[in-house]
Design a protein that fits this description.
about 170 residues
């Protein structure tokens, strides 16, 4: 193992009840694209500090990166309960995670809720557009991409999605 892992593992062994030590070690694993072991470390940190919304959000992110979006959902929901001041961001994360899990209806509902809380969230409009395309709701996707274009006018990803939505509705000449 590279020295930073050894040093961080030693910190965990010195202070096994310190969730910060577990998070630091998990962060190093994430930086090395080793998300599965990072998730295990963060699950331990959550057991130590179950009311820490940030640790739950970090765990959810590692689980998503490890290809386990369904396992991430309850942690985002709990982080949202624990940190209502971050409702827009966490609700966006929840929508994105449902999208990754293949549940476009739940994804769209959560993304719309995030947009009610923070209407100028361009990334949420963009994600909503793609969710609606995946769900075959092309007219709604056009509206979402159109709104996203106000916030992210140079996004090639946005214009690509808008083109697909127009083509699927037979309006590809626009």
């Amino acid at each position: 193992k590279p020295p930073p892992f050894a040093e961080l593992e030693a910190a965990v062994h010195r202070s096994p009840g310190d969730p910060g030590a577990w998070r630091d070690l998990a962060d190093a694993y994430c930086a090395a694209d080793m998300f599965a072991p990072a998730g295990e470390l963060l699950e331990h940190a959550v057991r130590i500090a179950p009311r820490d919304a940030g640790t739950r959000q970090f765990l959810a992110s590692a689980l998503r990166e490890a290809g386990r979006p369904r396992d991430a959902i309850p942690h985002i929901e709990e982080a949202l309960r624990l940190d209502p001041d971050n409702a827009a961001g966490l609700t966006f994360d929840l929508g994105a995670t449902f999208d990754e899990a293949g549940d476009q209806a739940a994804a769209a509902a959560h993304l719309r809720k995030a947009l009610e809380l923070r209407p100028a969230m361009g990334g949420a409009w963009l994600r909503l557009g793609w969710v609606l395309v995946a769900d075959g709701r092309y007219a709604e996707a056009i509206e979402a991409f159109d709104t996203a274009s106000r916030y992210r006018p140079k996004s090639a990803h946005l214009w690509h999605g808008l083109g697909i939505a127009y083509a699927k509705t037979g309006q590809d000449r626009k």
